[in-house]
Amino acid sequence: MSGFDYSLVGRIQQANDIVEVIGEHLRLDKKGKELVGLCPFHTDHRPSLYVNPAKQIFKCFACGAGGDVLKFIQMRENLTFPQALERLAQRAGIPLDHTWSKKQAGSRFDEPDSKTLSKINAWAMQIWIGNLKDPQKGAQARQYLESRQISDQSVRDWKLGFASDGWDDLVSRSSSAKLTAKMLTASGLAVPKEPSGYYDKFRNRLMFPIHDVGGRVIGFGGRTLGGDPAKYMNSPATALFDKSRCLYGLEQARHAIVESGTAVVVEGYTDVIMAHQFGVRNVVASLGTSFTTGHAHLLRRFARRIILLFDSDRSGQAAAERALEVCLAEKIDIRMAFIPGEKDPCDFLLQMGAEPFRKVLEEARDVMEYTWNRLVDQMEQGDTMADRTEAMTQFLKNVASGLLSGKVDSLSRTLLLTRLSSLLGLSAGRVEAELKKFMKKTNGSAFPEETKGTGGHYIIEAQREILEVLLNEPGLLAEQNGKIRIELFTDPIFREIARILLDFLEEGIEPTLAQLCARTESPQTAGWIVDLQQSGAQRGNYRDRLRQAAEVLWADVRSRKKEAAKARLKEKDGESLRTISEILRSQKGDRRSGVYKP
Description:
Layout: H1 6-15, H2 18-23, E1 29-31, E2 34-37, E3 49-52, E4 57-60, E5 66-67, H3 69-77, H4 81-92, H5 98-105, H6 114-133, H7 139-147, H8 152-157, E6 161-163, H9 169-173, H10 181-186, E7 190-192, E8 198-200, E9 205-211, E10 217-224, E11 232-234, H11 250-260, E12 262-266, H12 269-277, E13 283-285, H13 293-300, E14 305-310, H14 316-330, E15 333-338, H15 345-352, H16 354-362, E16 365-366, H17 367-379, H18 385-405, H19 410-424, H20 428-443, H21 458-472, H22 492-506, H23 513-517, H24 523-539, H25 542-593
Parallel strand pairs: 12-13, 12-14, 14-15
Antiparallel strand pairs: 1-2, 2-3, 3-4, 4-5, 6-9, 7-8, 9-10, 10-11, 15-16
Helix pairs in contact: 1-4, 3-4, 12-15, 13-14, 14-17, 14-18, 15-16, 17-18, 18-20, 19-20, 21-22, 21-24, 21-25
């Protein structure tokens, strides 16, 4: 955290009330002086996440997650600490200067930052919107939209445009907008050509702007209107755009997703637009890639359930196996649904209407059950026990792979084993043994064990005692006359917390929990800060606990110093003995040769 301006971090933190921010992601109900809701960081059936408005912290008493508003956004949106700062600064309208943004994001100084890239994309979008409206330029694109029955209102709502067939429509206009061709290249809108110059990347294509949830234009998809073999083309990866972490239509769909608790993921841009046109507004699309953990991270902010909707049964099998891994790794309910009759969702909606489409979604099947049944169907053609065993083996391998991708707590593990036991017709113990075997083969690990704390040794417990006391009664530090030092803390997490806390106290500041959490980039460390303060508050007896814990740790320090001194002395004695032995051997050899040297 040394590279951050603490005053700026504190300003961003204070400008974002934790109740308001968390309330944008999940429902909170009043419970005494706090608010409570379903925790988004584990499978929560009874509200276990508490938000304290006075302290500006949150805490889940089931999975242990906790911290300030910055840590909530980090964990909820899968962001780095700098990214969470930028997100909340943007939300509060706090400007971050160009240098700060580049420094914290690790960008190269000769490339546009994310804010500049977004402005360049918005400029290109407006040009393409103008092209689509142009009577001559946009005629073919408008005919295509009409043929797909995409309404004029949808065209406006989704800000569709047209990239003309020329080679330099954007490049030639860039100078008047005070943009360089290199800036267009960095944003994925232009391509260098040999031996010199640049040309537009998107040409003769219907353009679909891709927005993030904040409304920024982060990239584009383009559908060819000519003979280009690449039917669809997306923006290349930039500092702003990564298709494995982006979903088309999320800005427009997120409120409906939150309201329904379900996100529907389809494969095409027009599928999304047509679903919204028919009033089914919780639909988004992956961008020409399979469903990834990045997509799951993104949707988990808004949805409890994800339905993957495919055009036909043939396209679903490989996607289902991948989705099973994502489902287990991200601990989110994923289901599979298929459009009947070899149609895509857009055509199905136009032909059948919204209600049959909703019925398809209602009949979506659990991804675990679907994957297992598909494997059994394929293997039953041989009609032997070996075939069924092979199907079961393949299925368990997929499950094991998913488990290795994400942390599974004891409750989730028990539920999973119960489900698998029922599905496979085996005992839970047998299922767990088989999974451990596959996981060990994959990377040498078995089921991740649920741990609470960083060690049960009395030295670690004494370090914990000191932190519990000082997080509740920081004024007691002065009574120890400098005995509480960083060197006493050997556990990495406790050492970081001690450093943060002692930095404040040495400055004469008694920090709040939110202030402490803001000085660590680690959500895990922030969770420990909250946990230690609360467990310490329940135990009380601060002065005696601090004195006794300090005595234990200093006794340990003295013991370690004594052992180190003995080791050095032993090593020195050993070196002396080796030296004497070598001299004697040398003398013995010299005597044999008749040349003795005392």
